Inverse folding.
């Protein structure tokens, strides 16, 4: 007696993988990816860091104001004398008992407010310009991070669509394999079929069931991958509706002059050009102004037994530093040359990818058309062979071969459709307008 697969097992294979999964359309998935994914939050934090660096560089033009309270004690002749004089005690008078050679221990509380202001600092101006360029570069990298995150969500969306289509195809194949097995059973029971045919049908049915189970698990994995792509840490996200190529028929956004990642590299080159000038400015002198107001007291902090002020200016010119500035200038020049080479290579790579994706789109359209025609032919061939087998006019081997060809044709159609959608999306990514195009579709949708 033949062991037929339980009906409940077949029902399990044909049931939805995750009935409770949240559903999203592609626009919502991309929107959530460009706002909630950790990589987006990281790029935003890097942009904030670059903005803070600009404010930090600008502070070089502003004065530094320092408040201090200093306590000191000394019986050193010179130090003790200055403490006494700062407290406006006239220890030099003939009537004073102060011993200049062997003084008593003197103490002082020095309360001081100091101001320092750079009057000429060539390094400061270049630091600000360099920080601004790095901020623009960080903003461009943040824009590219949005593009990458949005496209990753789109890929994951297509992954779910592909898994669902494959599951549907394998489920259909499992149902058809079950029908072939039924016919083989009936022919064997009627005495007009071979036991070998029945066994072949059983093996074919088992293989179809295995593929259906794998496809079911692939759906779960794809939905979890989509959840990760939009910034969730767990759970499953399914698609509300499958995409087709008409989704990309209209692209209201214009192509950008330069992709965001290439803009970031170009701005990095400009930043290094400024850094080169800054390294050369290190040979120039620096002029600073300083002023202070001080209170002195012998016995308590913040006391005002004596008051004094001081103003001054200083020029500092480092004439020799062990060739540190020469090495720094050479290092920055080499970094700039490397960045220029990287930018040139990145633009060459972009031009190549644009040409490649155009070929892939044309190829995907042709493959989709061919796969659809092949599926129609495979369906008709399977129908005719099944009728002939039921009538005893052909062998089961021929029917199983035709059924396998039909299963393969269904997979080809799914793969061709997904490849076309992926190539159309990649074309927008290579132009640097994927996210803007997708999110604009949400604005113009009825």
């Amino acid at each position: 007696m033949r062991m037929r697969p339980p009906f409940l097992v077949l029902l399990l294979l044909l049931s939805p993988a995750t009935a409770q999964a949240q559903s999203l359309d592609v626009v919502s998935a991309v929107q959530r990816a460009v706002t909630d994914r950790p990589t987006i939050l990281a790029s935003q934090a890097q942009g904030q860091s670059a903005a803070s660096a600009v404010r930090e560089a600008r502070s070089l033009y502003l004065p530094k104001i320092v408040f201090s309270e200093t306590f000191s004690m000394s019986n050193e002749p010179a130090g003790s004398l200055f403490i006494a004089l700062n407290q406006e005690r006239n220890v030099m008078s003939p009537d004073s008992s102060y011993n200049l050679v062997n003084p008593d221990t003197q103490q002082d509380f020095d309360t001081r407010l100091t101001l320092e202001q750079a009057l000429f600092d060539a390094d400061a101006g270049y630091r600000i310009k360099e920080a601004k360029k790095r901020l623009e570069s960080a903003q461009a990298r943040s824009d590219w991070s949005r593009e990458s995150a949005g496209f990753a969500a789109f890929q994951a969306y297509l992954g779910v669509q592909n898994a669902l289509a494959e599951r549907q195809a394998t489920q259909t194949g499992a149902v058809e394999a079950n029908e072939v097995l039924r016919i083989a059973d009936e022919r064997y029971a009627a005495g007009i079929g071979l036991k070998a045919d029945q066994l072949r049908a059983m093996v074919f049915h088992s293989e179809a069931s295995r593929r259906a189970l794998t496809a079911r698990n692939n759906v779960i994995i794809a939905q979890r991958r989509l959840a990760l792509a939009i910034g969730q840490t767990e759970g499953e996200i399914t698609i509300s509706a499958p995409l087709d190529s008409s989704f990309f028929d209209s692209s209201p956004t214009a192509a950008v002059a330069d992709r965001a990642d290439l803009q970031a590299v170009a701005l990095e080159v400009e930043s290094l050009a400024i850094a080169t000038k800054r390294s050369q400015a290190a040979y120039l002198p620096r002029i600073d102004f300083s002023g202070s107001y001080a209170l002195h007291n012998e016995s308590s902090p913040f006391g005002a037994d004596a008051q004094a002020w001081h103003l001054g200016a200083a020029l500092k010119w480092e004439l020799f530093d062990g060739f540190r500035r020469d090495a720094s200038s050479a290092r920055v020049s080499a970094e700039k040359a490397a960045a220029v080479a990287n930018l040139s290579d990145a633009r060459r790579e972009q031009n190549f990818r644009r040409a490649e994706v155009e070929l892939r789109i044309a190829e995907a359209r042709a493959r989709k058309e061919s796969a659809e025609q092949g599926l129609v032919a495979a369906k008709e061939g399977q129908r005719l062979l099944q009728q002939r087998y039921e009538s005893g006019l052909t062998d089961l081997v021929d029917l199983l071969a035709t059924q396998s060809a039909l299963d393969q044709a269904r997979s080809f159609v799914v793969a061709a459709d997904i490849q076309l959608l992926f190539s159309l999306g990649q074309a927008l990514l290579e132009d640097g307008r994927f996210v803007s195009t997708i999110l604009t579709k949400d604005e113009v949708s009825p």
Observations:
- The two ends are 60 Å apart (CA to CA).
